[in-house]
What we know:
Layout lengths: L10 H47 L7 H4 L23 H22 L6 H24 L4 H24 L5 H23 L8 H18 L3 H30 L8
Helix pairs in contact: 3-4, 3-5, 4-5, 4-7, 5-6, 5-7, 6-8, 7-8
Amino acid sequence: MGVPALSEPTEEERDLRRQQRADDRRQRLDDRRQQAEDLRQKFDERRLQATGAAQEAWRNPRLTVRRLFGLDRSGPPPPQTLAGAPWNPWTIPNAIGFVRLALIPVMLWFGLREGDGGSGMAAALFGIIAWSDYLDGMTARITGQYSRLGTLLDPFVDRLLVLSGLAICWQKDLLPHWAMIVVALRELYVMVTAKMVLDRGLELKINWAGRLGVWPTMSALFFAMLEWHTFAVGLLYIGLAMGVVASVQYTQDALRAVRPEPSTDG
């Protein structure tokens, strides 16, 4: 008994198959869009919950000496600093931040134009910009003028200051180049990681290793510009070690922040 010959599909059947495949592709695309929208909604809900919890829990605490100098950071952050809060740029702390930012190109001009060796004027400006970081934080705590912009502006100015100081020390060959490369890559990595987390509507909190490690690094650049070579190199290595530890913690925090929560459906 012979095998019956398979008949060729008609043009109408081929059209139906093409239409079915197109419908399937459209459905898969719609499903992916819906998943992305669901994920965005979860992020928005998480952000609103965090903001609401902070507004409910946060109270302007009594201003002790430890809190004034930023040593006591217990309790939730002020709700004005959380994602989704108004930028509120016109505050006294932000004015200090704008001045710090404006002084960086002036410091670069002095530091890069002078001859070989250290740069006293650049070092003085570097010190003013670095130490005024405490001033804007203290001003915010005294006046209660917290803002979303201030929360983002302060670490941006600090990292830009470090990169600018590295540029001066690199040109004048004041510190080991390999260590300066690692510090620069670390600063850029933290900036990119923070940007990725912020784009998802989340927060990347500054950890204590990063908060403490910035001062040996900045001090190393300051003393290098004054040509205190041995002291500057020692501080740079301390800051570098603490910066690497902080970067590992930032990576772990970022991965936890962007990892989608397990589905509870079904």
